[in-house]
Design a protein that fits this description.
Layout lengths: L4 E2 L6 H7 L2 H4 L15 E2 L2 E2 L5 H15 L3 H11 L6 H14 L3 H13 L5 H13 L3 H14 L4 H13 L3 H14 L4 H13 L3 H14 L4 H14 L2 H13 L5 H13 L7 H16 L4 H13 L3 H14 L4 H14 L2 H23 L10 H5 L10
Length: 395
């Protein structure tokens, strides 16, 4: 299973970290990092004499990592380790790919080794926190995040990446703790307030979530995240026409990112747009464009799958919903729509399997909500059916 990271957040998240390594794995691939001596040693670990083939493997692996092709990058990075000048870059990118492909245990081993070699920097601690989240070790994840925050308290991405990992793992209580740490250091961060709003919406704390979205609209007025937050708030309020208006206004001002496109497409579908109407064609164009720009966003895949389901394109609907299921197998709304699609397609067995999974997830999620801060209660459909992409758009 390919985990959807912030590479834009694992779709955008990990890319942000990867680009920070460009000074080591960019145009000068043999450059010796500041914490590595010219003799080729990193900490207490000896590094074999670099060779051109290994450096090429590092370049290929790093390029694939930046594109989010984590599984494909792993063999190249494995081939590079121990044979390149920048062993740190090879090891860090490999750990990043393991997190991205769902192998958190392997990532933890590599990152823990980097720690012991003296690389206890904010990037390592941040990625380690994400790996701990994926490995169901919340206490360790929080400890690593706090170390990263102590090193770089004003680095907004540190908190966003770990919070996204938590929400992807459906650990909303931990996500709230992570965002709270971030807001303690960056109280005026529009992105962190947006993130908290999305987390609260998953806990059915819609009134509190709307407060964050309103604040984001003020803090980042005229930016994409401002328009996204305004449209998101309107969706939670049930004011679909206002959501459509806010999204269209943002697009008319040049904010045409995939998140806003997805929200607009979703809002148009909720407005009752049906095949043959201009609004349905607009929603289809928006969602297809969003999916093309960010194919690894499950929310966009779900919305596009729903649109095709409404339009009677059952094979296409199933394809996009199955893609969303592969990326986010614990998301109830995927199975609710898959069950409908398979049933209409005549595959009753697959429909029943989707319904059985949906029932298990709803029960598990209800228990999770009951144990969340504030004793939030789950109304099953609320958080899922009203949620927009849980990612942070560029301002």
């Amino acid at each position: 299973m390919k985990r959807v990271l912030g590479v834009a957040v694992l779709g955008g998240v990990l890319f942000c970290v990867c680009t920070q390594l460009e000074s080591q794995v960019g145009s000068n691939r043999t450059q010796v990092p500041s914490n590595q001596s010219a003799s080729g040693r990193i900490g207490d670990q000896s590094v074999a004499t670099p060779d051109l083939q290994a450096e090429e493997e590092l370049q290929k692996g790093s390029a694939l990592t930046r594109r989010g092709e984590f599984s494909e990058a792993i063999p190249h990075l494995l081939a590079a380790r121990g044979r390149v000048a920048s062993e740190y870059a090879a090891s860090f990118n490999l750990a990043l790919c393991y997190v991205g492909s769902g192998d958190s245990k392997s990532a933890i081993q590599i990152l823990d080794n980097l720690r012991h070699q003296g690389h206890d920097n904010a990037d390592v601690e941040n990625l380690l926190a994400q790996a701990y989240v994926g490995n169901d070790q919340p206490k360790e994840a929080l400890a690593s995040l706090e170390k990263a925050a102590a090193i770089s308290p004003q680095n907004e991405k540190l908190y966003l990446l770990v919070a996204d990992a938590c929400t992807g793992h459906q650990d909303y209580a931990l996500a709230l703790k992570v965002v709270s740490i971030g807001l303690r250091n960056l109280p005026q961060s529009a992105r962190l307030h947006y993130e908290r709003g999305m987390v609260l919406s998953q806990l059915d704390e819609f009134d509190r979530a709307k407060g964050d979205f309103e604040l984001v609209s003020k803090l980042a007025a005229g930016s994409e995240i401002g328009y996204v937050s305004a449209a998101q708030k309107d969706l939670f309020d049930g004011d679909i026409s206002a959501a459509v208006q806010a999204a269209r206004e943002g697009m008319s001002k040049g904010s045409q990112g995939p998140i806003l496109l997805t929200i607009l497409g979703e809002a148009l579908l909720r407005s009752g747009a049906s095949p043959g109407q201009p609004e349905f064609a607009e929603a289809q164009a928006d969602l297809e464009k969003a999916a093309a720009e960010r194919p690894n966003d499950p929310s966009t895949q779900i919305a596009l799958g729903r649109l095709y389901l409404i339009g009677g394109r059952l094979t296409d609907a199933i394809a996009h919903l199955e893609k969303a299921r592969q990326m986010q197998p614990d998301r109830p709304v995927v199975y609710a729509n898959l069950a409908k699609a398979y049933q209409r397609h005549g595959d009753e067995q697959a429909a029943q399997q989707a319904l059985a999974t949906l029932e298990k997830l709803n029960l598990a999620r209800a228990e999770q909500i009951r144990n969340a801060p504030g004793d939030s209660k789950m109304s099953y459909g609320g958080g899922e059916t009203q949620s927009a992409p849980n990612e942070n758009p560029k301002q």
